[in-house]
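Running this now, will post back.
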Amino acid sequence: MQPLYEGKAKRLYTTQDQDVLRIVYKDEATAFNGEKKAEFAGKGELNNRLTSHFFEVLAAAGIPTHFIERTSEREQLVRRVTIIPLEVVVRNVVAGSLSKRLGIEEGTVLETPIVEFYYKDDSLGDPLVTPAHINLLKIATTEELSLLEQEAHRVNDVLRPYFDNKGITLVDFKLEYGKTPAGEVLLADEISPDTCRLWDKETGEHLDKDVFRRNIGSLIDTYQTLFNRLGGNGQ
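Update: finished.
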């Protein structure tokens, strides 16, 4: 098993099966494209458990993902895909950069969810891109872009009521997609409090990485609280 890639929150390894990769979740947390960094013991285990569960929830709803199985506290097996260099962001409530860009008060509920695309390039700061930009960069075809938007809405249609039933508002979240060697587009990467904004419906308490970004609480305590709210086992 050889190292293949190391990102901000995960390491990726090959396996004896060329179509299967092993992900190891790290304890590091980053914000602002890596400008802010810290390490939190147990974070990798929590994100592995939570991501595995969310992918299982989505698979049960008929949404294709790269996830195969969780194999240990920090590890999971996934199908090999080539990541499409786009972050697909779904917004249900105004927060973060959307509030800053448009001057709309954070917490404003959107009448219709918005899907945005960001170019995955740390050196450029992962800029917001339009379909015309995506076509210029040859990142995805018009048909693929339409599919990504459609699939992102499908994920939202599953996860939004899931969290609502737990007393949590799914404010916004980031998705990444990849293509198999056969060309199938699959939901990939992770879904965790690293990649979602989650607010307690009654108190507005942040249950996500914003506590680290904004210095408003303990990241590991927050993630553990979310874990417990989902039944203590991601369910």
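The chain has a mean pLDDT of 95. More later if anyone needs it.
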